[in-house]
Amino acid sequence: MSRGSPDLCDLSASELGARLAAGEITCAELAESSLRRIEAVEPRLGAFLTRTPELARERAVELDAYLAAGGPRTSASGIPTALKDVLTTRGVRTTCGSRILADYVPPYDATAWARLSGAGAVLVGKTNCDEFAMGSSNEHSAFGPVRNPWDLERVPGGSSGGSAAAVAAGEAVWALGTDTGGSVRQPAALCGIVGLKPTYGRVSRYGLIAFASSLDTVGCFTRSVRDAALLLRAIAGHDARDATSLDAPVEHPGRDLEAGVAGMRIGLVAGALEEGVEPGVREAVRTALDRLAALGAELEEVALPHAEHALSAYYLIAPSEASSNLARYDGVRYGVRAAGEHTDVAEMMARTRGRGFGPEVKRRVILGTYALSAGYYEAYYGQAQRVRTLIIRDYEAAFERVDVLVSPTSPTTAFRLGERLDDPLAMYLSDIFTIPANLAGVPAVSVPCGFADGLPVGLQITGPPLAEARILRAASALEADLGLDLRPPLLASL
Amino acid sequence: MVGGPWEPVIGLECHVELNTRTKMFCSCPNRFGAEPNTDTCPVCLGHPGSLPVPNREAIARIILIGLALGSTIAARSIFHRKHYFYPDMPKNFQISQYDLPICVGGALEIDLPDGSAKRVGITRVHMEEDTGKTTHASASGRIHDAAHALVDYNRAGVPLVECVSEPDLRSPEEAGAYLRELRALLGALGVSDVRMEEGSLRCDANVSVRPVGSDELGTKIEIKNLNSVRSLERALAYEIDRQTRALEAGEVLVQETRHWDEDAGRTTVMRSKEEAFDYRYFPEPDIPPIEPDPAWIEELRARLPELPRARRDRYVREHGLRPEVARVLVADPGASDLFERTVALGAPPERAANWITQDLAALRKAGEGRVGPEHLAELIAMLDRGEITGASAKVALEEAFATGDPVPVIVERRGLAALADADALAEAVRAAIDAHPDAVERFRAGNEGVLGFLVGQVMRATGGTADPRRVADLLRERLG
């Protein structure tokens, strides 16, 4: 390691699992390591909205006793975990990065967290994010921005910026985020870690506070491809509480990590290395593709003819669903109600929403309300759904020719705080490569593939539905071959 | 458009709460009358992150309703979200159906007062969820004065079926007959409690008026807050009269929604077409399309009971009941069931029907009793054998209703057995004659009516156990 010596919290979950199994370390030591790191870097990063050190210590001690008594260990046992603050946690405040839920304490756990917690994961806190997961820089949080551990003047990406920064800086060994248009993969790329968006329906959305229901997925942030497979395995599977969760047999996503890419057909998305993509990003991706070819993969270029309309379709479908999903925040049953006297309930609701929501949320709610209005529905929402169907067909056709598709995850590396805040369209373009996978519901992973001007670059690998094992296999081969040092400079100063 | 005569055109939209064990999209109990906000969970309270999962039994029941109405069961139907802000609707949208309902088309046949039948078309039957209930708390009970409102979410998420008729009804009476027929049908299917007073069956009416002979529809007015068959008929009569007068006065009606005020006996404007909501319907992304397996539909079809119309016809045909008696019996699934079982025990159908629709119906108004078919069959048999009198039978029925004891036991315990002892009866007759010489004199003077008075005296003296016809015969004998 070139930058400082690693603490326990810098190791991967799979390594930690081995050391816990061997009795070399305890869950309590591991938790303390993570909590110390949070103390050390959090003032500079702002990755967490709520920290849970007492809960973490209690849980770690409990787990040590359980394991000592012969309780079975899982790959999640004792692993310090962070959760994006849009996943509900029973008894722990869950804000969605919004003033309107600043005091909301959910009465139940999200299924993904319930499974992870049941497998022995230790919650260290709830992470910052763009309000209701709407944004690509984490600057739309009502509670302030998150800073990128690679350069504190830059954004970590979004919307799951807090989870990405926390994992990159060792505050947590792994974290869950949510990905509606790239909100796991893009921040993973900008923070130099692995970000996995599973197939739509593979992980239950129960307890994922909805932004756009038909696009939302729970995703994984890890520092290794193997950990991504372990984390997905812990949270995936059918859930009777989510009617859209898939009832398909689940193969172990880490099944083929060692299998290499020899003979794998890899398609570069046509146009993905052309205008709009920073030269440094282009360079890093080209180098990675060369390495994959050197490892025996067969590369070709594959067109997704309708992907150019993906951004437009997304910005009709996602705000439409958001305008509906966010209607419930009215101050009647939970959340923050606007203070003062109101003449009637309509005024109370209007004031609550007017004061409780930030500008980006309002922008999208208004956009979505308009798109669903009588007389406009067919032209906007209806048309966007037809584009979506065409994009699904594009992917189906592409996967008849190749095993996986690759592209940059983001057209740029981490940009400066404030740089795009006044230009929503420039901000929306951050997700140009990630959005099509959400529209099609297919799995995709961002894996670090190099650097541009000292900032990490991510390669996105996309597969057909339920082919997580395949995309992780390709990612793992690249990860092993490149052997990048992904400790951010922030840690050298500790 | 001045002119007449006018005819009303009426269509009904009925909402039916299903009596499933649990709610439509969560596992909370579905019941009436629990403590406010106790039958709730994150799903039916619309908590962040919660998701709806459709209740299979509710889908089965709406399919049963569709099959009973002869609807086409859609191979693929979808839920939509219907948006408007209201505090008793937890998500500020209602999960409902829009252009792809589960049941399409069909008809309900109703009986008209002249004895003929009429087919009323069904447009669609769709599935949705109910809202909570808001109570405005104020000293006067009026919304304007209320300082605050209380919301009870127990009803939020209860499975609700909306059944929309074609505008085929032509009078308030036809509309009433339709609503009664639908209630009987739903009751026979057992899918709902169909209690209008508890809101498990609710009804909105669309009504317009046009010149007789016209094919065009007039301006449609929707009437809300119709809580009984009677208020439906009254509100329609009022509204038809109002619209007719307006048209005859040369006024132009505007499309609007009106509220029926039961106490004042009139409708008032709730909102005009311009104020109508834009519900921003779009497909519910949290619920996959409903695609019922054809084999399942056939299983459900096999579960269909005999429907009210067929049952009424059978009662008239097989049991010789008068049509109006058959209608009263069939309208009440409990009564109809008791009738069938009593007849199966050998009771004469007409006698059984009369007891059930008269004396027993009066008792059942106060609550459920413990009278079963064996009680009724025994009661009728004892009457026929002269073992008890009609008056005693009523007493025995009341007691059986309260206790559930066998009729012979009650007769024995209460001394209700008919006075068979000729000497005792003769003695009671003699005593009555002795006690009322004036009456005797008037009878002998030709006043036949006095005989009833004397019979009554004997009945009273014997505690109702004497056979009134024998008493009358004995009196004539003695006084003749």
Question: Would you summarize the structure shown here?
Answer:
The complex is a heterodimer of chains A (494) and B (480). Chain A is α/β, with parallel strands linked by helices and 494 residues long.
Describe this structure as you would to a colleague.
The complex is a heterodimer of chains A (494) and B (480). Chain A contains 15 helices and 11 strands. Chain A is of the alpha/beta class and 494 residues long. Chain A has a single domain, classed as Amidase signature (AS) domain (Amidase signature (AS) enzymes), CATH 3.90.1300. An 11-stranded mixed beta sheet of chain A has the order 1-3-2-4-6-5-10-11-9-7-8, with helices on both faces. The mean pLDDT of chain A is 96. The mean pLDDT of chain B is 92. In chain B, helix 3 links the parallel strand 12 and strand 13 (256-261). In chain B, 40% of the residues lie in helices and 19% in strands. Chain B folds into 3 domains: 6-298, no CATH class; 306-414, no CATH class; 422-479, Arc Repressor Mutant, subunit A, CATH 1.10.10.410. Chain B contains 15 helices and 15 strands. Chain B has 480 residues and is α+β, with helices and mostly antiparallel strands. The longest helix of chain B is centred in the middle third of the chain and has 20 residues, at 229-248. In chain B, helix 12 (422-435) crosses helix 15 (468-479). The chains are: A alpha/beta (494), B alpha+beta (480). At the A-B interface, helix 9 and helix 10 of A face loops of B.
Q: Output the strand order for the largest sheet of chain A.
A: 1-3-2-4-6-5-10-11-9-7-8
Order of helix and strand elements from N to C terminus of chain B: EHEEEEEEEEEHEEHEEEHHHHHHHHHHHH
Spatial gap, N to C terminus of chain A: 14 Å
Query: H/E series of chain A, N to C?
Result: HHEHEHEHEHEEHEHEHHHHEHHEEH
By CATH, the architecture of chain A is named Alpha-Beta Complex
Give the oligomer, counting copies of the same chain as homo and different chains as hetero.
heterodimer
Shape of chain B: elongated
Q: Uncertain regions of chain B: pLDDT < 50 for 5+ in a row?
A: none
- In terms of DSSP E residues, the strand content of chain B is 15-25%
Helix fraction of chain B? 25-40%
Radius of gyration of chain B: 29 Å
Rg of chain A, Cα atoms, Å: 21 Å
| Main sheet properties of chain B | 10 strands, mixed
Give me the secondary-structure category of chain B: alpha+beta
From the spread of the alpha carbons, the general shape of chain A counts as: globular
Which residues of chain A sit in consecutive blocks of at least 5 with pLDDT less than 50? none
